[in-house]
Amino acid sequence: MNSLKLLDKAVEQFASLPGIGRKTALKFVLNLLKREDEEVKAFTESIIDLKKNIRECTVCHNITDGEICDICSNPKRDRTLVCVVENIKDILSIEATSQYNGLYHVLGGVISPMDGIGPTDLHIASLIKRVEDDNNIREIIFALSATIEGDTTGYYIYKRLANKEKLVISTIAKGISIGNNLEYTDELTLGRSIVNRVKFNLNG
């Protein structure tokens, strides 16, 4: 039946999203079928608008619907601090702690030779340039996942910035279990790890 083909096609689209299995995707599709036409139209238009208008912040690579994100353009943020994170979800996790009021820099991942990801595949060059061009920056805080890849990325950036004598390079305290990503860490633990951050040490 053609209707079932349409159903399967819609289910496949939802199931292609991270963390969504076919059963959950089917629930989403069946729920949409029960909605009023205007609700479905509003839903689809919001996704289209999101894709069309959301872009990367030209400063930190966070998402924004303008040229510069709300965090970078906020005059109340501490412009002497830049927290380096892997992805946008990490920003949301840190913001939820209410323990950090500085700026961010999104790398877009971590160095992972096994996955074919090197320094040039990430937003590392723009971070280095940002530090060189902005005299307000006094501290770089690594808030990377407690993995070999996260540590490797931190080491690489540290070496690139080691000649900046007045720049403090720190890392969040080791309250996060080895192998864990920030998004899976509870707000209290993450907040404390930021407040109790320590000076970055090449020897770990």
From TrEMBL:
GO terms for molecular function: DNA binding; zinc ion binding. A zinc finger (C4-type) spans 57-72. One of its GO terms (biological process) is DNA repair. Keywords: DNA damage, DNA recombination, DNA repair, Metal-binding, Zinc, Zinc-finger. Residues 80-177 form the Toprim domain. Coiled coil: none annotated. May play a role in DNA repair. It seems to be involved in an RecBC-independent recombinational process of DNA repair. It may act with RecF and RecO. NCBIfam families: recR. Belongs to the RecR family. HAMAP family: RecR (MF_00017). This is Recombination protein RecR.
